[in-house]
Amino acid sequence: MKDQCWWVTGASSGIGAALARALAARGARLILSGRNVAALEAVARDCGAGTMILPFEATDYGAIPALVDRAWNWCGRIDGLVNNAGISQRSLAVDTDFAVYQQIVAVDLLAPIALTQQLLPRMVAAGSGQIVAISSVAGIAGVPLRSAYSAAKHGLIGYHDSVRAENEHLGLKVLVVAPGSVQTNVSRNALNADGSVRGESDAAIDNGLSPDFAAAQILTAVDAGTREMVVAEGAEAAIADLRRSDPDALFDRMSAMVQAGYAQQMRATATS
Fold first, then answer.
1. Element (H, E) at 179
2. Which sequence spans correspond to the domains of the chain?
3. pLDDT at 113
4. Exactly one of 61, 101, 149, 262 is catalytic; which is it?
């Protein structure tokens, strides 16, 4: 990846920041995007020279064409795009305001589609390119307390699968990644039923895989030309497997979780 130009969204922390550092270690030039300029600058310092910061609000769709022009012109190409920016949720569907669905779908699904749609014709015309979409195990299986998040992440997989099918023969590669719990701020930044920010993490995230491990796995998959991968262990890896091999067993397991008080344990009920 030496001297390739990679654009990473959601690069201020977590998997995005880890991927940026791993790509920089391989000699790639980097465009780092997100909203937190100070955090992006810190990641850029880790990545060293050959790094450009391009902050923007993911849902400012009207600004995206000009941003793509600027990013493309910086290197004269984009070799890799990582669609990583996103926001999660911790609330029961029955309690959740529709505005939460609108916000999460806008950030997690429509924003990466808007960016990819602007960049896609250029990558196809160049005859090469790699897109990495960071979905989730919750994008393979609908899991409790994440109905909006699951909906958006399922859509992200479907969109990128279609883009791959249409353009793989033209030189474009697409990798969809479905992480389980990774030690990031995803739970702390998740939305409650009323749209407020949760503000606390949970044990699954705190005990999850390290972002650096996830990033290494992702780049190994890029090297191998992998199309889809699950980055998870234990029960979370089993969720993805069961969704395809024995969906009824998975549905029973998810229902049993809720009946056993999962929402109360996560303090995600309307009366909590």
1. strand 172-179
2. 5-265
3. 98
4. 149
